[in-house]
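Quality-control log, excerpt.
Job 1 of 2 completed; input and output follow.
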Amino acid sequence: MFPQSQRIGHSERTPGAGRAACRPSQNLSAYRRPMTDDSDARTEALLVRAVQLAAASRTSGNHPFGALIVDAAGEVIAEAGNSVETDRDPTGHAELNLVRKVGHLGPEALRSATLYTSTEPCAMCAGGIYWAGIGRVVYALAESELITYTGSDPRNPTLALPSRQVFAAGSRPVEISGPHEIAGARDVHEGFWGAG
């Protein structure tokens, strides 16, 4: 069973790749469903795709993170992987690469969009998601669990600042759902990080 979504914003504080065109090149019809179909199977399929993007990022020499964004009609409008190493850009996280791809759509369009990501957005990415106006975030692996893989690896100096706290500090609500138990979400990190 998946966790309940939470709407987080200023009034409800809660404790606690390249830059190509917006449309992905492959057939993603299996991932296209109306936003009203918020079933566990649909959520799982989109998160599995995010994990596949993370695996592709790792294969291409980048950090193992992937994300995609779905519009109000349920269509995947963009996908991104991490590009920190290949672009030599420390801000090349999957979620920020997505924001760069879809930011031109503006907050009105993005308010009804959902971002699915293999791992909970870090504080930097949560800020970018917030500023872009994206209305909903769904993630597989929690940042608090990611740190058990990354340890003190200098390639991922994790902040102990959950995305829920970042979103709660904002003046508009962002719905967040996760962590979700997704096959492969942990595996993509196995052996990548020097957890020492």
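Job 2 of 2 completed; input and output follow.
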Amino acid sequence: MNTTSDEHSKAPALVVVVAVVVVAVVVVVVVVVVVVVVVVVVVVIRGGGGGAAYLVLQQHFLRFVEVLASPPVSRCPPLPYAENAYPDTTLADEGIDVTLTCLTGYRFPDGTTSMQVSCVGGQWTRVRNCEGNQRE
């Protein structure tokens, strides 16, 4: 019976040890952040190029916030095949514009040799085929 009570007393002790370690790690991280902020402030106040260091840190912070705030990029399905034409890119992100160019001797039905298609709402605008064997 002593074995069972010993096992039960070890479990809460383990939880306490883990909690103490987690709190210690959080305290260390907070201290490091405070030290970095104090160093930056001191460098900026004293001058001597600190302004440039501050601007670099500010730019990195603003970029980090921008990335966190921006919505994830939507993807379109692969660009549909356009007969006798080639795209200028293979990207398939929402809002991307792709220029399709006809092979030599071919044209789109409206007589042009290139057209632009876009990824809008997860779908590509109408992709046309190049036709004919007309020489330019």
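Post-run check on job 2. The longest strand covers residues 114-120.
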